Please model this.
Amino acid sequence: MTENTPTFAKLLLRIFLPFALAYFLSYVFRGVNAVIFPYLERDVGITAGDLGLLTSAFFLFFAGCQPVLGVMLDRYGPRRVQAILLAMAAVGAALFGLSLSLGELIVARVLIGLGFAGGLMAAIKAITLWYPPERWGLITGFHMMAGGLGSMAATLPIQWSLSIISWQGLFFWLAGLCLVTSAILFTVVPERNSGGAKGTLREQFRITGVVLTDGFFWRIQPLLIFQQLAFIASITLWIGPWLRDVGGIADKAARADIQLYTTAIMTLGFALSGVIAGWFRRAGVSDFASATLVSMLFALVCAWLAFLPTFQPVLAWLLFGFLGAYPIQYMPLLARAFPSDYAGRVSTSCNLVVFSVIFAGQWAIGKVVDLWPRTTTGYAPDGYAWSFGALFILQVAGLAWMLLSRAHPLADARPAAAD
Model:
C-alpha cells in the first residue's frame, strides 16, 4: 500500500511505534546479560573473558552484515527487511534458552544479534522516508528513547521475572515477543516508494565504498567508535559486575535498582537529545559542535569511574547514562552529510565500523578484568580501573582527531551538517 499524505496519528501508530517496539526488544537483549550473568556463572561456569565474549557475540553478525543490510534497506525498504530479521532473532532467542554450553550460547547470541542488526538502521531509513529532514534528529532521539525503555526493562523487570521463571524460560518468552513484533511490522507498516536504490547491486555496493572512504565520515568515526564502545559495553554488561566488584553492592536487587535508574536517565537523555540539539541550534551552536561538547563531558565521566570510583558512584553512573545518550545525534548529522538515497548505506556503514570495534572491545574488557586474580565475591577492582582508564584515553584521542581534521561533507549533500 502507498500513503502520500500521512497524518500524525498514522505516522505514530504505523511507522514510529512498530520500529520503536523492535528497537525496545533489541535493547532488552543487549542488556539482559548484565542481570543474568550470576546465573550463567553458576550454570555454565563462564569467566569474565567468557562473559565479555558472549555479550559481544551479539555484535558479531550485527556488524558483519551491515554493508548488505544498507543495500537491502535502500533497495527493498525497511518494513520487509526488519520483519525478516526479527524472525531470525526469535530463532536465536529460543536457541539461547535451550543452550547448555558456552559455545551454544555464543551461536544463539550471534543469531540474536543478526536479528536485531537493523534495529536502528531500519528505523532511520523509515524516518528519512516519512519525515522531513529538519525532524530527523528529533525523531531519532525519540526512537532511541524506545531503546532506553528496553534497557530499563532489562534491569529490575528482568530480575523480577527470574524470581518466577528460569533464565531459560525468560528467553522463550522473548522469542515469542520477537515473532509478534515481526508480524506487526509486516502487516501494519505501509510501503513508501522512494524509487529504491538505483543501479545494479555492484553499483550500490560501490556507494558503500564511497561512504567508507569519505573524509568527513572518518572525521567523526574514531570518537563515535570509542564513545559507543564505552557506553554500550557498560550498559549492556559491565555496569552489573562493576557495581558488585567496585561498588561493593552484593545484593542483586539493589544492583538492578541502580541499573534501572541509569537506564531511566539514559532514556530521558535519548528523548531530550533532539530537543537539546534544537536549543543549541537556536543559540548558534551547530549539531556537530554540540555533540562534540557532550562527548567531551562523557569522556570525563569515564575518567571518574576509572580514577575516582568511590566518589559518588551512583551519580557517576547516572551522568554516564544521560551524557552517553546524546552523541546519537551524530547519526542524523552523518545522514545529512550525504545524498538522500545513500541513507541506508550511511547508517549501516557507521554501524559496521562501530560495532566491529564493540565486538572486539567488549571481549577485551573481559580479558583485562581477568588479568587479576578473582576475589571471594567476583573480579578484582583493578581490572575495571585499567579498562575504564583505557576507554577514557581512547576517547581523548578520538576528540583530538576530530578537532584536528578539517574534512567536510560531500558538496552535493544537504547543508548544515557541520560547522
Observations:
- Residues 142 and 271 are 5 Å apart (CA to CA).
- The domain at 10-189+198-404 is CATH 1.20.1250.20 (Growth Hormone; Chain: A;).
- The first helix runs from residue 8 to 31.
- The radius of gyration is 20 Å.
